[in-house]
Structures are given as structure tokens and as C-alpha cells.
Design brief:
single chain, alpha/beta, Isopropylmalate Dehydrogenase, eight-stranded mixed β-sheet, 8 helices, 8 strands
């Protein structure tokens, strides 16, 4: 990982893709590539499909367990840039993950971040969103601390994998008539087509946003297809000049301190 990141630092590579330890990758990338001006710590970001046939940017997914309000605001700005530049969404809706939609819900860090986001005119802040609405398409950018984001993502992945596995492996039953068996196969194929886009392999790869270079963290158990998705994400981030665009947005919204 260190050698790969040094290649990016020296300009001999445009991006680093790694399936190694997340903490080690985060620490090395932070040390070698350095955070952008205005960013306290980078955040892990991924793009998830939702039921409206669109995609949602979600961050942080585990790079920062504890986040104060300013870090959440920085994540929101970076997520909005990703939604605009990579997903092509104009004025992306930004929400904070919370335990309820009421303004009084949640810890101080989330409530303080909400107050700050309301005062940033370039951010289309829409309020709080609960975890059960993650895949509904109600927001284009969902912001949370790394602990909450990591648990939410892995829980969702586990449920989706179990559901897809049940569709593939459920037995036919010996006493069923031939037409019931055909009907069941037809229904299973239809459900597989409808929900196959939720397969975690198709959105493997979390971008470490906020650095002066492109770094993608692949799942450690990624198969060949999943790892290729992470590589594709790195190529797209480089082509869209994501670090440079985030730096420009940060400079206009949150001028660096003297």
C-alpha cells in the first residue's frame, strides 16, 4: 500500500486501488497524499443504487469513527461534489443520517451540522433521514459518521446477499406440480432481474475523499468482478478530476484558515 501511494504522490500513477486493511490505508494515504485544504480528515464514500433506479452517495463508511459537526459538514460538501460531477445530479439533495426526522433528535454533532448546512446556500440540505430509507431514493447524498455508516452498509449488504442467495437456492419441493415449478422459476427470474442491481459486488469500492489524490478501498473479500468495479471507480474519479473539484468547492464554501 505504501509503495502504491508513493507512486500516486510522485505522479507516476493516477490512482491507488487497495483491498488491504482500511485503517492502514487511511493512515498511509493521509500521511503521504495529505488532506485538501479545509478538510480535517478524509472520508470513505461509496455510491449505492436505490429503488428509483438512481444512485445515492453515502459517506463516511468507516474512516472516522468519531466525527464532530464540522467534519460532517465537510463530508456533505464532498458528497455533493461527487453527486454533481460523477452522477450528473444538479443541486443534489443532501441529508444527515439520524434516528428520526425531528430536528430535536440525535446527538449534538448532528444537530449542529444541520444548523450549519442550513446556512450554506450552495448545499441543497433537506434534513434528516432514517436508515430504513437508505435505498428509497429520498436523498442524493447521505452523510454520517464512520461508525454508523460502516454498520449500516454491512447490515444492508448482509440482508441483500441473503435475499439473493435464497432466490437462487430455495428448493422446488417434490410434491409440486410441474406448472407450479415453472411458475416459481419464472417469478424468481423476474425478482432476480429486479433486485440484481442491489448485489454488493456491483458497487464495490469506497473512494477516500478529501485527499490530494485518488484512493479507492476495495472490500477485502472482493471477487474478480467486484475488484474490477473498484478499478472502474478509480478511473472515473481521475477522469472527472474529483480531488481538484472538491478543492475548488471547499475554497468557495469554507475558505481555509490563515
Amino acid at each position: 500500500m505504501r509503495l502504491a501511494l508513493e507512486e500516486v504522490k510522485e505522479g507516476r500513477a493516477d490512482a491507488c486501488v487497495s483491498a488491504g486493511n482500511t485503517g492502514a490505508l487511511m493512515g498511509l494515504a493521509n500521511m503521504l497524499l495529505k488532506p485538501l485544504a479545509g478538510i480535517e480528515r478524509p472520508a470513505l464514500m461509496t455510491v449505492l443504487p436505490h429503488q428509483q433506479k438512481g444512485r445515492t452517495v453515502v459517506l463516511d463508511l468507516g474512516a472516522n469513527v468519531d466525527c464532530d459537526a464540522m467534519m460532517l459538514v465537510q463530508f456533505a460538501i464532498m458528497g455533493a461534489v461527487m453527486a454533481e460531477e460523477v452522477l450528473g445530479i444538479s443541486a443534489p439533495r443532501v441529508a444527515l443520517l439520524n434516528i428520526g426526522e425531528e430536528e430535536t433528535k440525535g446527538p449534538d454533532s448532528i444537530r449542529d451540522a444541520a444548523a450549519m448546512l442550513k446556512n450554506i446556500s450552495s448545499i441543497n440540505y433537506t434534513g434528516y433521514l432514517e436508515a430504513n430509507e437508505l435505498l428509497t431514493g429520498k436523498t442524493d447524498v447521505l452523510v454520517c459518521d464512520g461508525f454508523t455508516g460502516n454498520v449500516t452498509l454491512k447490515t444492508m449488504e448482509g440482508v441483500v446477499r441473503m435475499f439473493l442467495s435464497l432466490l437462487k437456492t430455495q428448493g422446488e419441493g417434490k410434491k409440486r406440480s410441474w406448472w407450479l415449478k415453472i411458475l416459481k422459476r419464472w417469478l424468481q427470474k423476474g425478482l432476480m432481474r429486479r433486485f440484481s442491481h442491489l448485489n454488493p459486488d456491483q458497487y464495490n469500492g469506497a473512494c477516500l475523499l478529501g485527499l490530494r489524490g485518488t484512493v479507492i478501498k476495495s472490500h477485502g473479500a472482493a471477487n474478480q468482478r467486484a475488484f474490477s468495479v473498484a478499478i472502474e471507480q478509480a478511473v472515473q474519479a481521475v477522469q472527472r478530476e474529483v480531488p481538484q473539484r472538491i478543492a475548488a468547492r471547499l475554497e468557495s464554501v469554507l475558505p481555509p484558515k490563515d
